[in-house]
């Protein structure tokens, strides 16, 4: 044994604390779990008993089973079942998603129609629905498509010819499937954090893009498990279409056992095929769920073989590390980033929530390129003021203009026309917003977070957007994180990416709502440094913050708010040392 040092005066049992001690003599014995062993034996007995009975009882008729398993009529029926399942699954999911979007739409009529459809279709048993469709020819002898109120007919077909049993089955299953699927999708949409929608709206992404790029992919996490449950249900419920005498798998099997009376073996043929289909679906579910989990978990479990394939994959583009050194030279020498700051005028705005007056006749002028720090106790209306500036919140009175353009309105003479959401979203791109809770899109990588809005809203080419994103990342010192997902970053890094995301649109005005409040104290500095650099680029900045030292250093103007009013505004040197208003002095005494 190597351990010969004499621990004079030290009690032998305290030697284990010595890190240099040789541990090779230790042996690890796994904990014993007698109850687990008992469980394993029980499971083994059950499995053996089931297998024994299944293979020794001659009445299962495995010989007959083998004879029919690959028989042509069975395979044809199987093909029909698979086709029907696939078609109904695809069209049911598309229709269901559309119904769910209609259901959450702001149009009461559209939402009501969707609700009614879902109510009706969920109430009717599939079998009844199928029979009704099959007898549609009795209700309507022909199906006509023409121009209403004229004699023009584009298509005129006898219903029975058009609605074959297969078409009826397809239609019935689709209608039924879509109603259930709609509710699953709606549940998924409701499960997505509202901050995600706000962030997407603040970037000015169009509504469609918000739905299909930001909300639905995140909703998929909760849609998939229930959706696949539904899909498996659909694959099985195709067996009810036997009522239409459509020779799918189950009907075919029935026809055969009625002739040869080998009921059990033939039912087994159908059962084993169903098992195979469901196994396929379960495997597919695993992979699809895993795909949509990217960004939702910090470390996704590797797929089987993934490590093997990764070795051959081309490495993702990683910026030249040297560019990181540019960081300290700041933003101001990056021509791409120099944005002309906007002039913000806030004219007597007021806003109430119910009886609570959250903003009360607020008047403020922010020159181009100015840096304004907004201070005030919690609940004083600071966030509401910022949200009013980019029209995430609509004010009741007064108006706000950026470079003479009214936020949320179009001026014609002396009339202000409220803009449609589509146009508001476009204009919003000029006003960036950074949230306390970052609100990065967790399912997109850092690069994808940065290029989404420039491409979609500004119409910038992908190449250029990527280049700009790389420049921005180099400047915030995060080039090596370009392909990381937000959850793989620290809070400070996430907030720096969020600032870069807002900057990628080259906004005229950038709003910060307590950008460091969610951060650990030691991470605050790195975010404030980025904002300080930014203060010299000419973008107009409005920063709600409790960091007094920071406000004193970077702000031209400090605004103190309380109960929705601006009590005091002025240069930091004056406000921080000789505030006029006693409430300001009281507040500063508490936070300084
Ligand atoms: P601050 O950011 O200064 O802490 P906020 O602007 O978030 O304050 O809120 C100001 C006041 O308005 C608070 O009393 C808050 O409860 C209220 N408020 C904000 N948004 C809403 C809303 N959507 N509905 C009702 N009350 C609201
Ligand atoms: Mg706030």
UniProtKB/TrEMBL annotation:
PANTHER family: AMINO ACID IMPORT ATP-BINDING PROTEIN, GLUTAMATE_ASPARTATE IMPORT ATP-BINDING PROTEIN GLTL. Belongs to the ABC transporter superfamily. Belongs to the binding-protein-dependent transport system permease family. GO terms for cellular component: plasma membrane. This is Amino acid ABC transporter permease protein. It comes from the Bacteria. It comes from Sinorhizobium americanum. Its main location: membrane. Pfam families: ABC_tran, BPD_transp_1. SMART domains: AAA. Residues 78-285 form the ABC transmembrane type-1 domain. Gene3D superfamilies: MetI-like (1.10.3720.10), P-loop containing nucleotide triphosphate hydrolases (3.40.50.300). Residues 344-588 form the ABC transporter domain. One of its GO terms (biological process) is transmembrane transport.
């Amino acid at each position: 044994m190597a351990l010969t040092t004499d621990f004079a005066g030290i009690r032998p049992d305290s030697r284990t604390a010595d890190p240099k001690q040789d541990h090779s003599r230790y042996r690890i014995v796994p904990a014993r779990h007698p109850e687990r062993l008992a469980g394993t034996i029980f499971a083994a007995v059950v499995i053996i008993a089931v297998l024994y009975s299944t293979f020794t009882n001659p009445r299962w008729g495995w010989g007959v089973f083998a004879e029919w398993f690959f028989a042509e009529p069975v395979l044809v029926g199987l093909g029909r079942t698979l086709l029907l399942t696939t078609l109904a699954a695809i069209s049911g999911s598309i229709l269901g998603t559309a119904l769910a979007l209609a259901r959450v739409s702001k149009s009461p009529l559209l939402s009501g129609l969707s609700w009614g459809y879902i109510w009706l279709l969920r109430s009717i048993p599939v079998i009844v629905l199928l029979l009704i469709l099959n007898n549609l020819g009795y209700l309507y002898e022909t199906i006509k498509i023409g121009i209403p109120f004229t004699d023009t007919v584009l298509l005129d077909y006898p219903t029975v010819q058009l609605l074959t049993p297969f078409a009826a089955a397809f239609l019935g299953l689709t209608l039924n499937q879509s109603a259930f699927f709609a509710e699953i999708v709606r549940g998924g949409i409701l499960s997505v954090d509202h901050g995600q929608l706000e962030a997407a709206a603040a970037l000015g992404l169009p509504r469609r893009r918000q739905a299909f790029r930001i909300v639905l992919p995140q909703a998929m996490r909760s849609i998939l498990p229930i959706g696949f449950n539904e899909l498996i249900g659909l694959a099985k419920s195709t067996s009810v279409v036997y009522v239409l005498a459509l020779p799918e798998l189950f009907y075919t099997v029935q026809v055969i056992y009625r002739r040869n009376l080998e009921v059990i073996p033939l039912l087994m043929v159908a059962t084993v095929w169903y098992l195979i289909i469901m196994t396929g679906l379960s495997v597919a579910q695993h992979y699809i769920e895993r795909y949509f989990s990217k960004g939702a978990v910090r470390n996704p479990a590797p797929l089987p073989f993934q490590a093997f394939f990764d070795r051959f994959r081309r490495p993702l583009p990683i910026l030249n590390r040297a560019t990181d050194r540019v960081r300290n030279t700041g933003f101001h020498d990056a021509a791409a980033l120099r944005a002309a700051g906007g002039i913000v005028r806030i004219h007597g705005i007021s806003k109430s929530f119910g009886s609570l007056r959250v903003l009360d006749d607020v008047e403020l002028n922010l020159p181009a390129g100015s840096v304004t720090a907004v201070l005030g106790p919690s609940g004083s209306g600071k966030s509401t003021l910022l949200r009013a500036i980019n029209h995430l919140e609509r004010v009741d009175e007064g108006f706000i203009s950026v470079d003479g353009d009214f936020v949320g309105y179009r001026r014609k003479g002396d009339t202000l026309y409220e803009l449609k959401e589509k146009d508001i979203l476009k204009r919003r791109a000029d006003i960036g917003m950074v949230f306390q809770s970052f609100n990065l899109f967790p399912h997109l990588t850092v690069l994808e977070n940065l290029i989404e809005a420039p491409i979609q809203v500004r119409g910038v080419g992908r190449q250029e957007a990527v280049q700009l994103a790389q420049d921005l990342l180099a400047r915030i010192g995060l080039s090596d994180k370009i392909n990381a997902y937000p959850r793989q970053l620290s809070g400070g890094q996430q907030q720096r990416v969020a600032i870069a995301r807002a900057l990628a649109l080259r906004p005229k005005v950038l709003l910060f709502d307590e950008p460091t409040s969610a951060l650990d104290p030691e991470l605050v500095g790195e975010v404030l440094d980025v904002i300080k650099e930014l203060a010299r680029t000419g973008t107009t900045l409005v920063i709600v913050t409790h960091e007094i030292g920071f406000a004193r250093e970077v702000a031209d103007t400090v605004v103190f708010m309380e109960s929705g009013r601006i009590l005091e505004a002025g240069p930091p040197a004056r406000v921080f040392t000789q505030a006029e208003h006693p409430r300001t002095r009281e507040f500063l005494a508490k936070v300084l």
